[in-house]
């Protein structure tokens, strides 16, 4: 089977699993543009990930597919994913009503929250699921290639990198409902940025550290430095997950003490409310700082100082999140008016407390 056809079959398998595996139904924060009713979502990400990864291990253990097949055929599978992302973009954007202009619509999208099969499939939810599953498979395959090359002297940094990244992916899918309240679902539309991004960029570029280091020998990074990488990663995770969880509880159960300790302190004009306590009193986008810290830890964990590839990942987060912070502040300023200005006076820092 050609690598191109195999990747298409793999994407199709994840779609079928997402379609048939039982999931729970939840109501999200976003409302349907036509009816104004809150959108409903069907969530089964962890189960689909578990089944797909389980099949990967069965295929590897039985010799049906080499453990490092995705690494060996990374160029062909990346090219195929690029083509699928472009086709998806054209298919979801062109039939919809124009908004800005063709190029802008192709990139940013026209439809806000497309759902199919009477809501059984949500486009954004599926895109993030396929991206997470494929990234997990790439990480496992790339690490397998390293272990096959150096079975007696593998790099602990490579193993730590895969372990931390895998934790990130499984944890993300475990909290699928929380992410329904984040910028991606609230503000973005489905076009090239999101469609090609999840079908191609997310599963392949996020693994860029292993693209450039999986075939390198053990750099013998001292264990204390690897421990500091893990500490930085979980510090970032606590900032990102803590902020998102606090916001989720505030949106769904506004009287609940976040983590049983943090009282929800708000700015209000009688109608609208802005959370200013806990994580959201540290900076206006403290979760972005957490994402950048995790990405930096993942780059550091590989321990190859002469390699620039791993640093593309945290650099990407800077390029992504700083403009997103500016756009999100603009949206909130328009939505909340004077209340947001008061929040900016109350919480001066945009992302990094004391710096930016």
Automatic annotation (TrEMBL):
Spell out where the chain crosses the membrane.
Answer: 6-23, 44-65, 77-97, 126-148, 154-173, 194-216, 222-240
Highest taxon listed in the record's lineage: Bacteria
GO BP annotations of the record are: sterol biosynthetic process
Q: What is its main location?
A: membrane
Keyword Membrane in the entry? The reply is yes
Going by the UniProt record, its keywords in alphabetical order are:
Membrane, Transmembrane, Transmembrane helix
Query: InterPro entries this protein is in?
Result: ERG24_DHCR-like (IPR001171)
Extract the GO molecular function terms from the UniProt entry.
Delta14-sterol reductase activity
Q: Which Gene3D superfamilies match?
A: 1.20.120.1630
Subcellular compartments: Membrane
The membrane topology noted for this protein in its Swiss-Prot or TrEMBL record is: Multi-pass membrane protein
Instruction: Name a Pfam family for this protein.
Output: ERG4_ERG24
Q: Where does it sit, as one GO cellular component term?
A: membrane
Question: Is-annotated flag, keyword Methyltransferase?
Answer: no
Q: Could you say which protein family the record assigns here?
A: Belongs to the ERG4/ERG24 family.
Protein name per UniProt: Delta14-sterol reductase
Q: Which organism is it from?
A: Nannocystis exedens
What lineage does the source organism belong to?
A: Bacteria, Pseudomonadati, Myxococcota, Polyangia, Nannocystales
């Amino acid at each position: 089977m050609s690598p191109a056809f195999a990747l298409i079959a793999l994407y199709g398998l994840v779609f079928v699993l997402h379609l048939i595996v039982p999931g729970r139904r939840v109501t999200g924060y976003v409302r349907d543009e036509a009816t104004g009713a809150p959108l409903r979502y069907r969530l089964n990400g962890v189960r689909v990930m578990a089944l797909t990864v389980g099949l990967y291990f069965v295929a590897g253990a039985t010799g049906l597919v080499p453990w490092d097949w995705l690494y060996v055929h990374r160029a062909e599978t990346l090219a195929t994913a690029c083509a699928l992302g472009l086709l998806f973009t054209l298919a979801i954007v062109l039939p919809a009503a124009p908004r800005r202009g063709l190029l802008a619509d192709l990139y940013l999208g026209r439809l806000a929250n497309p759902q199919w099969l009477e809501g059984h499939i949500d486009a954004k939810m599926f895109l993030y699921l396929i991206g997470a599953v494929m990234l997990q498979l790439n990480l496992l395959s790339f690490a397998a290639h390293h272990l096959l090359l150096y079975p007696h002297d593998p790099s602990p940094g490579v193993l730590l990198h895969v372990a931390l990244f895998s934790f990130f992916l499984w944890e993300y899918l475990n909290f699928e409902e929380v992410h329904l309240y984040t910028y991606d679902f609230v503000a973005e539309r489905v076009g090239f940025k999101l469609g090609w991004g999840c079908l191609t960029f997310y599963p392949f570029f996020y693994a860029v550290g292993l693209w450039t280091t999986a075939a390198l020998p053990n750099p013998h990074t001292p264990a204390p430095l690897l421990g500091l990488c893990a500490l930085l990663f979980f510090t970032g995770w606590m900032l990102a997950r803590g902020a998102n969880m606090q916001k989720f509880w505030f949106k769904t159960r506004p009287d609940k003490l976040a983590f049983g300790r943090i009282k929800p302190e708000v700015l209000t004009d009688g109608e609208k409310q802005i959370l200013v306590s806990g994580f959201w009193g540290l900076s206006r986008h403290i979760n972005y700082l957490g994402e950048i810290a995790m990405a930096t830890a993942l780059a550091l964990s590989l321990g190859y100082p002469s390699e620039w590839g791993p640093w593309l990942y945290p650099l990407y987060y800077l390029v992504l999140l700083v403009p997103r912070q500016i756009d999100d502040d603009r949206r909130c300023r328009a939505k909340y008016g004077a209340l947001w200005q008061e929040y900016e006076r109350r919480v001066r820092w945009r992302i990094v407390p004391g710096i930016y």
